[in-house]
Structure prediction request, 650 residues.
Amino acid sequence: MANTQEIVSVLTESRVFPPPEDFSRRAHIRSMQDYQRLWDEAAKDPDKYWGDRAREELYWKEPFQTVLDWKPPHARWFVEGKTNLAYNCLDRHLPKLKDKPAILFEGEPGDRRAITYGELSQQVNRLANGLKSLGVKKGDRVGIYLPMVPEAAVAMLACARLGAVHSVVFGGFSAEALQDRMKDAGAKVLLTADGGWRKGAVVPLMKNVEAALPNAPSIEKVIVLTRTGDGKLPEGPKFVAWDALVKGQSDTCEPEWVESEHPLFILYTSGSTGKPKGVLHTTAGYAVNASLTTRWVFDLRDDDVYWCTADVGWVTGHTYVVYGPLMNGVTTIIYEGAPTQPGPDRFWDIIERYKATILYTAPTAIRAFMRLGDGPVKQHDLSSLRLLGSVGEPINPEAWMWYRDVIGGGRCPIVDTWWQTETGGIMVSPLPGATPTKPGSATFPLPGIHAEILDRDGKRVPKGQGGLLFVTKPWPSMLRTVYGDPERYVNTYFSELPGMYFTGDGARTDADGYVWLMGRVDDVVNVAGHRLGTAEVESALVAHPKVSEAAVVGRPDDLKGTALVAFVTLKQGNAPSEALKKELAVHVGKEIGAIARPDEIRFAEGLPKTRSGKIMRRLLRDVAAGKQSSQDTTTLEDLNVLAALRQTDE
Ligand code: WTA
Prediction:
């Protein structure tokens, strides 16, 4: 991990944008004084603050007795309480919102469906009853590998209704990635589709599932939604058609009232080893913060048409496409496909037609649109928008300004929201009616969130200086463990400074106390908004028969934020060639998914190592970025190796 002295900030940004007055007037939190008051209350008496929030946000079948039981690093929140998240997303709204659209769906080919809260509730209950008929019960793990269609939300909610633990796998992941995750989770049932639409082509989900099944022995049944094909199922007793399963099922299903700490989902995410971690979230704490942060950060109103463009395969899709918006009873847009299909204006077309009021997307998408110029945006009336959000990586001020001026017409506040799979919900973000924003800064921690920038000894770093971002006190939506590997939970997150959650990010505060995220300090990279572990890509590469060793690092990239550069040494008897580069890229795509394909592969005679044999990644990062290294190279095993790597630059 990086030394804090090495986290050097180069950004200087002095523009400040106060919230528009008419926005503040109607906002949930209207001023910095209000924010500060909430922050102070939460800091002074966290039990009262979170206890009050929990009672306000959720319906409790049985009240909790204890707000927090904290035995570092293990937290239990809202102990003895019982609730059900599907009930909180659906049933409790029905008296008022039965006919209100919950989901406005648009498929990539242009098919459209509006699903009301009443209809969504019926679909969830039918599927829950169908799952029950297959023997799914409380605590069972259920895999979900679906395109961005409403059934993905239906599947998640049906699991939550039964107390089954869902594990969603992003549809862009390969058969290998799917099988590893299903095996690790011990999933009993997998919900999938024949395919999904992306860039005018079919993503072959079913084919991947068939390839994964022989190595995922826990899966007893595969439920197949027809999305792209003719409804024909693969041969074999494991396959059940979604339609046939739900047909004739009752549209009521008594929710399973689960205890607060009952597991809700496992979501695999990259870390600094080759094996993704199963981040485990539990029910009530996650739900309280998902509901609260969605309402405050997006300043929700009843008539909002809210669009978060994330895929349900990532945590943003869990918290801000499905659970947060539905708990708040708003209308949410789900779009299946690629942002530029069939033309560069698809997003703007959707916003205009549905009169979307809130758009929450990723910097990499914003930069891609920026490249396409203002033309496609100008063809559409985006005056319905009133708030913009950004997530996934630091947003560069230039993209922030374009987002504000061209998409937001200069009138919409931007919320740059910092959080992680592990935090369950937004942690550092402006509150749009209160916080004056600065382009590129996530501004301040939300009330109750103790995000602090410390050095390795746990001392606060002075303003302006880079440090490591920790969360020094527990919060309700924090991950509870790494599924099946409790030691890894402790080692990864709580071993830098005992009892404090280490985020893996570097950050600094400026003279006004604004938080500026500075990227990962571990071997995790954010490529085009997707979180990847360089070690995962390395282990995929060395699994290729011609590869001897591989080191993968990130290099700054204008579009993707970070691009992947792989340094590869070959086994004897193999010669470097362009064809082999292609072969390796395809191989990584097969092992993990297209998102993990290196942008550049460089063959090398050897990799720079310390005397103890550790690959010197920071040095390679400099080489990849074309920088002369300022690194101390005295521990290098072989300086010639470095010189040789540089030469491959030419
Ligand atoms: C990065 C996505 C800067 C960060 C919700 C974090 C950000 C990782 C921001 C988590 C932001 C996310 N500004 N960096 N607004 N949001 N990140 O788990 O490095 O896919 O650690 O969760 O994304 O990625 P994950």
